[in-house]
Design brief:
The complex is a heterodimer of chains A (about 260) and B (about 250). Chain A contains 8 helices and 8 strands; from the N terminus they run E-E-H-H-E-H-E-H-E-E-H-H-E-H-E-H. Chain A is an alpha/beta fold and about 260 residues long. Chain A folds into 2 domains: about 110 residues, Rossmann fold; about 110 residues, Rossmann fold. Chain A has a 4-stranded parallel β-sheet, sandwiched between helices. A 4-stranded parallel β-sheet of chain A has the order 6-5-7-8. In chain A, helix 6 runs parallel beside helix 7. The longest helix of chain A has 18 residues. The two termini of chain A are about 15 Å apart. Chain B is α/β, with parallel strands linked by helices and about 250 residues long. Chain B has 2 domains: about 100 residues, Rossmann fold (3-Layer(aba) Sandwich); about 110 residues, Rossmann fold, CATH 3.40.50.1860. Chain B is built from 8 helices and 8 strands, in the order E-E-H-H-E-H-E-H-E-E-H-H-E-H-E-H. In chain B, strand 7, helix 7 and strand 8 form a beta-alpha-beta unit. Chain B starts with 14 loop residues before the first strand and ends in a 15-residue tail after the last helix. The chains are: A alpha/beta (about 260), B alpha/beta (about 250). Chains A and B meet through helix 3, strand 4, helix 4, helix 7 and strand 8 of A and helix 3, strand 4, helix 4, helix 6 and strand 7 of B.
Chain lengths: ~260, ~250
Amino acid sequence: MTIMKGGTASQGTPIGILMADGKIARIPGDVGNGFTYDFPVRFYTVKGATAARMIETTDYSLLEPFIEGARYLEAQGCQAITTSCGFLIAFQEQLAASVNIPVFTSALLQAPFVAQILPPNKKVGILTANSKTLDHKHFLGYGLTEDRIAVQGMEETKAFYPAFPGGSTSYVYEDVEADMIWAGRKLVSEHPDVGAIVCEGTNMAPFTPAVSRDTGLPIFDIITLIRLVASGLMRGLTSPFKNQLTGGDTGSPPAWGRKPSDL
Amino acid sequence: MTTMYGGTASQGVVVGVLMNDTKLPRIPGDSGNGFTYDFPVAFYTVKGARAPRIIESTDYTLVEKFVEGARFLEAQGCKCITSSCGFVIAFQKHLTEAVNIPVITSGLLQVPMVARMIQPDKKVGILTANSKTLDPRHFLVPGLDESRIAIQGMQEFPTFYSTFPGNSISYQYEDIQKDMVDAARKLLREHPDVQAIVCEGTNMAPFTPLINQVTGVPIFDIITLIRFTVSGLLRGMTNPFKNRLEYR
């Protein structure tokens, strides 16, 4: 006898994504495009969450609509929550405290881990939409110190910055790719001791494979982080004998959201 | 014109695994079985690395042998180094200093990241081969203290303990499965505030899918860590438009 448990209106959408309120192009590979994922996700647009209020400054009055969105996604059956903008690491603690499921606001959460696995004389390179406004205090700590990071911003780029923080509804793919390659090269030429790169920007993800090939460095972005969290959330959907998602061939149905107290 | 670079004797072996010097069963799903991976790996056995010197105590004279192995694997073209025993986290610093590639000694390296993702008043549960000898100082970092973790050891479960740290050459699958599920249930019963589990033991990985199914709690182990690290190492081999490795 196998009991099938419900508990939320819809089910089977492990990752909930809090989207900025914009109309920029989010191509496959971007956190805000459904085709990026090989598992189901759910999007929620946070009203008023514009680049000006998240990237150019941190507007803490946005916290309330973000918490509302996180709670909505939790109630809809999501098992973890992420966001469409790496600068939202500023809200990490508040969002994590507001729901009962894991929250990972930004790819920058990977930076302390990456520092720990690199040779101690190497740095974590960080590519961010805007290095002038990124407050390091949000991702330093947990063993990561200022001397282990090197930051390169995109604020001077002619294609990337207008396309994403600028809020344009279209961009020329090759131009943005060229900006990303330029930023990766500048980062490693100015800091030859960079051992791996962490990308803050979620719009950077479609271009990180090219940057990784060009620099020869490992790159961690919001997509590698989402995959890590999803692999832990859905460990029960993997075959114990094969390190791949299999859609649950292990004979027993998954216990979506079952609470420890049910044991 | 495209220049193809060499530089090492063999290439295309992404992960180098420093194996303990044992003969215990390492079934598919264990970090010491080649079929566990969907990318190529290389194994290297560290002579003399046995449970009494790693799990029951930390014998720092082993560092030299581990460093030798890590350098060998690096020279063979591996892009990162991992180990077959979560207690090797004691050597994390020594090994990162010894080679020029990333080193992930233990599933426990995920603990700080997981702790930051869950509610600040909730705990990370840890399943380890031996909670009596595991020194939390190896994986705690500034900002993460012992109040955020809850540890359950397998030394209370004779079948598991005599098989893995005990270095038996065979085991009954169902018995180990039962020990693992019982241990996870005990952890969650005694610490209802555990919101995610991290497994120290590499031999636990074949059983974590079942624990996830019966508890519903997210579970991170050496395999989720290796996959994560490899996804960053091989980011250039993924299709930018699709969130998957593409070389298969």
